[in-house]
Design brief:
170 residues; two-stranded antiparallel sheet; elongated; binds heme C
């Protein structure tokens, strides 16, 4: 039977569409930390706080904030949306500036206290108010800094996808 050039091209297109739609499913890989979360962890809104106490990375404790204590006096609850006393920077061992995806993930899992590390990390990432400040707010005493792209909605989706696949540090 003659189908003609047009008919032939049309079937090629259909075949390609079929292959394209089937292949990603057959190749489905577990969600990795490096897929979406790594870039967000390395966003300045997370980093500026996490490197705050690092001399190596010229954290703010060693430059703009050399003699600034009583954080809440400036980063007021009204600005940050955090309860009083919660605007604070972590110990420098939680600084992942310049670290690879794997190292960043390992640091994130390291200082969560006792219990099941993955569920502690999941709860922290989904519910910690400072994390949510970085995702949705970004307000400082000098005005608003850009929040992490995608906000908490995209973040929750990416965190849950990663958690469902075992929270591998890859
Ligand atoms: C005297 C007022 C003042 C005090 C006190 C203060 N800050 Fe700040 N902070 C600022 C201002 C103003 C900015 C924004 C301008 C800038 O980039 O330095 C800022 C910015 C920051 C940033 C950068 C935010 C970002 O996402 O880029 C962090 C982190 C930070 N402060 C943490 C702290 C911590 C932790 C403390 C307490 C140890 C503190 N600040 C105390 C005024 C203050
Ligand atoms: C206002 C400062 C601040 C900001 C902004 C911030 N954090 Fe933190 N973070 C902390 C402090 C303080 C701790 C340690 C205290 C605690 O565990 O509650 C911490 C702890 C963590 C931990 C556990 C660390 C470990 O080594 O086990 C993770 C993971 C984390 N933060 C992720 C993030 C991510 C991701 C962002 C950005 C979306 C972010 N944080 C933004 C202050 C901040």
């Amino acid at each position: 039977m003659m189908i003609g050039l047009k008919g032939f091209l049309l079937s090629v297109v259909w075949l390609l569409a079929l292959v394209v739609s089937v292949v990603p499913v057959a190749n489905a890989q577990p969600t990795r930390f490096s897929d979406a979360l790594y870039a967000k962890f390395q966003n300045p809104r997370c980093l500026q706080c996490h490197q705050f106490n690092s001399r190596t990375h010229n954290g703010r404790a060693f430059n703009s904030h050399r003699s600034r204590y009583l954080c809440d006096n400036c980063h007021t609850p009204r600005l940050t949306g955090l309860p009083r006393g919660e605007w604070m920077a972590p110990h420098e061992k939680m600084d992942w500036t310049g670290k690879s995806a794997r190292e960043t993930c390992l640091i994130a899992k390291k200082n969560l206290g006792t219990g099941d590390v993955n569920s502690l990390l999941l709860a922290h990432l989904l519910h910690d108010k400072r994390v949510h400040w970085a995702l949705d707010n970004g307000m400082t005493p000098n005005g608003k800094f850009p929040a992490v792209p995608g906000g908490s909605k995209e973040w929750a989706r990416d965190v849950r996808a990663w958690a469902e696949d075992g929270m591998l540090c890859e």
